[in-house]
């Protein structure tokens, strides 16, 4: 199994190109199930999760071809053509779905297009119990009948889905994707209230509109959908990854230096930029991305809660905590989205951090020095928090189980090495 070795202490200087967003690319790929036409996605990141979803979609009969970047195309990722002319299998099996959360989202489109689906209950990062009750409630509201048997959701809507009024009790990215992707082909009007307004939902909604869907209220918590009988193919470019952007911003905040995060979209990062500035890191919005710089001054501690968009994202919580381990004072970080998203705390402790957990709140007492150590990645964002800490720790940090990192960070070592970090992948 690969490991990542970091020799800490180097400042970061240069340019890092931000990849297409994993959490937009995955649901965008799934929208291909809604049309017999060809969906062409550009700026698709080269990630393990994308490859896994390709296998899941191919199992349903989606024909997928991947090519490198085209001339004139913005972004750095692949171009992917997805064509679901015929759905040959409406079952999403356990061995594939259990590895990745987003794969469960095929439920809505399969039901909408085929009137039936059998989808294994999902997996994903082990950061809480992560129920799917709101996904199921939305499908039932849209007229599906559901049973859970042997770990599978078995859903049917033989006469098609019907428009409905769906009100979510709490904000869920996945349940919003599911409801939206099902409602676009339902008969009649659907209103989704308390919808997630994360930029990735907006990206999917905009792609669906290009395919012929009728959606109002995009980027707001109330989505109004008029069902259509069919959708066509289209071309769409995946938005830049705001979580990758926040992560590299925190790498620079941690080490000091001056880095341009090329193609980053500041409008998706308001809460992250605010926290970085409060911590004493300079963030300048440029035409071609975000410039992050910190020269000398100590980091100031911060106090924050994770929240649904536009609040501070839970997917950047571990990275911020790593950065705050060396702040000049005590930071208070409250995790409000997932009940078990502090697995990085005990690994950060191996590097010499001083963090105390009180229920959903971490008290991060800044230390003057971290020291390299062997550590273990436990989930995607927790693993990259260890990279951030390792970049500033004296000596060598060796991170094992880096397959978690490969789910969501494209060529992480190359991007950091290009800015002067001493990072290497040790194979085998
Ligand atoms: C692939 C992807 O895009 N994953 C993201 C998605 O995950 P995911 O879509 O799984 O997260 P949700 O937004 O659904 O979860 C938010 C909260 O709602 C709860 N919940 C969710 C569904 C449900 O049916 N019942 C329920 O109680 C969850 O346990 C959690 O406490 O949004 C999270 C919150 O921004 C991010 O951390 C993940 O990176
Ligand atoms: C938690 C994440 O992914 P998933 O929902 O697939 O577990 C993530 O992207 O940070």
TrEMBL record:
Protein name as annotated: UDP-N-acetylglucosamine 1-carboxyvinyltransferase
Pathway: Cell wall biogenesis; peptidoglycan biosynthesis
Organism for this UniProt entry: Aestuariivirga litoralis
Single biological process term from Gene Ontology: UDP-N-acetylgalactosamine biosynthetic process
Sequence ranges assigned to domain Enolpyruvate transferase in this UniProt record: 7-416
Any one cellular-component term (Gene Ontology): cytoplasm
Name of the encoding gene: murA
Subcellular location: Cytoplasm
UniProt keyword Transferase, yes or no: yes
Matches recorded under InterPro entries: Enolpyruvate_Tfrase_dom (IPR001986), Enolpyruvate_Tfrase_sf (IPR036968), MurA_subfamily (IPR050068), RNA3'P_cycl/enolpyr_Trfase_a/b (IPR013792), UDP_GlcNAc_COvinyl_MurA (IPR005750)
Annotated positions binding UDP-N-acetyl-alpha-D-glucosamine: 101, 170-173, 315, 337
CDD domains according to UniProt: UdpNAET
2-(S-cysteinyl)pyruvic acid O-phosphothioketal sites (modified residues): 125
Positions of the catalytic residues: 125 (proton donor)
Keywords annotated in UniProt: Cell cycle, Cell division, Cell shape, Cell wall biogenesis/degradation, Cytoplasm, Peptidoglycan synthesis, Pyruvate, Transferase
GO molecular function: UDP-N-acetylglucosamine 1-carboxyvinyltransferase activity
Catalytic activity entry: phosphoenolpyruvate + UDP-N-acetyl-alpha-D-glucosamine = UDP-N-acetyl-3-O-(1-carboxyvinyl)-alpha-D-glucosamine + phosphate
Annotated function: Cell wall formation. Adds enolpyruvyl to UDP-N-acetylglucosamine.
Residue numbers binding phosphoenolpyruvate: 22-23
Recorded family membership: Belongs to the EPSP synthase family. MurA subfamily.
EC number, UniProt record: 2.5.1.7
Keyword DNA-binding: no
HAMAP family: MurA
């Amino acid at each position: 199994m690969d490991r990542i070795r970091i020799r800490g202490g180097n400042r970061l200087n240069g340019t890092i190109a931000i990849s297409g967003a994993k959490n937009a690319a995955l649901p965008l790929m799934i929208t291909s199930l809604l049309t017999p036409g060809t969906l062409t996605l550009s700026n698709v990141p080269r990630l393990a999760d994308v490859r896994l979803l390709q296998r899941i979609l191919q199992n349903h009969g989606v024909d997928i071809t991947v090519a490198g970047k085209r001339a004139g195309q913005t972004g750095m990722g692949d171009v992917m053509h997805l064509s679901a002319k015929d759905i040959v299998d409406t079952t999403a099996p356990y061995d594939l779905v259990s590895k990745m959360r987003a794969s469960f989202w095929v439920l809505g489109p399969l039901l909408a297009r085929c009137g039936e689906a059998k989808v294994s209950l999902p997996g994903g990062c082990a950061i809480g119990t992560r129920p799917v009750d709101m996904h199921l409630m939305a499908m039932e509201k849209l007229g599906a009948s559901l049973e859970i048997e042997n770990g599978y959701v078995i859903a049917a809507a033989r006469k098609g889905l019907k428009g409905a009024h769906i009100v979510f009790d709490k904000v869920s990215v996945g349940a919003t994707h599911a409801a939206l992707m099902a409602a676009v082909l339902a008969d009649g009007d659907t209103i989704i209230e308390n919808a997630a307004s994360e930029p990735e939902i907006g990206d999917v909604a905009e792609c669906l509109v290009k395919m012929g869907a009728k959606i109002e209220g995009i980027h707001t918590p109330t989505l109004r959908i008029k069902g259509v009988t069919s959708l066509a193919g289209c071309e769409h470019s995946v938005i830049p990854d705001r979580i990758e952007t926040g992560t590299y911003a925190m790498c620079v905040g941690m080490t000091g230096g001056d880095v341009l995060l090329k193609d980053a979209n500041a409008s998706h990062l308001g809460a992250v930029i605010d926290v970085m500035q409060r911590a004493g890191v300079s963030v300048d919005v440029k035409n071609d991305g975000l410039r992050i710089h910190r020269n000398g001054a100590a980091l100031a501690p911060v106090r924050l809660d994770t929240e649904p968009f536009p609040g501070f994202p839970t997917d950047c919580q571990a990275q911020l905590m790593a950065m705050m381990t060396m702040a000049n004072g005590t930071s208070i970080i409250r995790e409000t989205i997932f009940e078990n998203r502090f697995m990085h705390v005990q690994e950060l402790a191996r590097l010499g951090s001083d963090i105390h957990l009180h229920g959903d709140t971490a008290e991060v007492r800044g230390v003057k020095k971290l020291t390299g150590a062997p550590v273990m990645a436990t989930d995607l964002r927790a693993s990259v928090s260890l990279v951030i800490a390792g970049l500033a720790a004296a000596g060598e940090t060796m991170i094992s189980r880096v397959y978690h990192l490969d789910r969501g960070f494209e060529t992480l070592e190359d991007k950091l090495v290009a800015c002067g970090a001493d990072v290497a992948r040790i194979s085998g």
